[in-house]
Amino acid sequence: MIFDTFLGRGVQRPFTSLTEQEILALAISSEEEDGRIYADYAARLRGDYPSSAAIFDGMAAEEHGHRRALIDEHRRRFGEHIPLIRREHIAGSFARRPVWLMANLDIARIRSEAERMEADAARFYEEAAKRVTDTGTRRLLGDLAQQERAHERHAADLQASRLTEDARGEEDRKARHQFILTWVQPGLAGLMDGSVSTLAPIFATAFATQNSWTTFLVGLAASVGAGISMGFTEAAHDDGVISGRGSPLKRGLASGFMTALGGLGHTLPYLIPHFWTATAIAGIVVFVELWAIAWIQNRYMETPFWRAVLQVVVGGSLVLAAGILIGSG
């Protein structure tokens, strides 16, 4: 790091130190980068979200138009050679997230990221216009600032012309389906496993020992261990490429966290020293957990409510009863 700094790598210049030529060069490289990002978004979304892809194609075309106008202005004032200067060279400059980090974001987050990019670009042009003295350059930068501020309205116009209600509905359905596959389904499986599978060992320990602290330790170990196991299993058995279920890391986190949470829900009451008070509260928590699972199945997995109740509440109650009977014996 010392040698990098000494050689000039890793040292950023203040924006106020830029010459007018360098400001134009920075604007040109920034527009080029933004145009490529929008084109990448369009390519990434084209298969599943063709209407939104068309919106980003339009935004990419507009950024390339800005770039051509800036190049023409640079050629008028400074000639053909454009110095190499990028955002990362300037202290405090807004940075763009690499597109590959956005690969698993849903369509709403991608649209939000595009809005942030336009707001950043508008602020840059507003500040840049204050730093130049040439009337033509200042007018161009001011016009670009206004265009970037209006880009959200431009995107709305594109949506009105290209993103019909039917297309929007279809894209929203696809986004919801992806959310269910990536987050809800593994999270629900984890919650069911953590809530139901830990009932028998926790309540068997509770009634066998009638000791709150011992029961808490057993429940904690079972919940954390199950969470780690379920998380690794979910992440390792499917990379999401063929199944389309999304990032294995996200699915593993959802499954592992919800598994641990499911077990900890009826474990934490045993922090109460009085055994029967803790057991009564744990029983209430179990009741709430099982009905919550049935509700999630009905809400997101479209399982008929009473079938979900039969599968989860009745099944979980049988597991609970088995644990109590084994512990009491």
Plain-language structure description:
With 329 residues, this protein is mostly helical. It folds into two domains: 162 residues, Up-down Bundle (Ferritin); 160 residues, no CATH class. Helices cover 76% and strands 0% of the residues. It is elongated. The N and C termini lie far apart (67 Å). The N terminus is likely disordered.
Keywords:
329 residues; mainly alpha; Ferritin; 2 domains; 76% helix
CATH superfamily placement of the largest domain:
Ferritin, core subunit, four-helix bundle
In total, the number of domains comes to 2
> Span between N and C termini?
67 Å
Task: Estimate the strand proportion.
Answer: under 5%
Helix content: over 70%
H-E string: HHHHHHHHHHHH
Q: Mind telling me which CATH architecture of the largest domain this is?
A: Up-down Bundle
